[in-house]
Write a structure and sequence with these properties.
The chain has 145 residues and is mainly alpha-helical. It has a domain of 71 residues. It has five helices and no strands. The radius of gyration is 30 Å and the shape is elongated.
Amino acid sequence: MQRTSAPNIAGAHLLQRARGYWRARFHATCEGVESFLERERGQLPSWLVVGFGAGIASWFALDGRSEWLAVLCLSIGLAIPGFVFEGGRLERAIGWIGLAAAFGCGLIWLRSEWVRAPRLERPMVTTFDATVERVEPIASKGGPP
C-alpha cells in the first residue's frame, strides 16, 4: 500500500482579493451596525436598563465571590475600550452597557452584604433561656372561642 501526503501549499501565493476578504467583511458588518445604531439612537438609553439588569441577573446566577469579581472585571473590561478607543456609536454603546452591567452587579453585591444576617457555619444544638412577656389569645377556626 502506497501512502502519499497532502501537497504543501505554504509557499503558494494567495489571490489579493482573498487576503482582504475577512477584513472587508468585518468593516462592512461594523458599518451596518453603526447605521442601525444611528437609526435607533433614540432607543439606545433603554439598553442601559438591560445592561443593569444583566449585571443583577449575573449576580443571582453565579455562586460566589470570585465569579462575581469576574463579572465585574469583564464588564469593566468591556467599558474601558468602549470609551477609550475613538469610534462611533457601537464602541460607546458597548462601553455604556458594560458600565451598567458592572454597576448592577456591584450594587446588588453591596446591598446583599449590607443586609446580610449572621450565618451558621455548621449545624449545632444549643440551649437558651427566655421569659414569656405576654400571651395573646387568638381564636382559631372551628375551635372554642
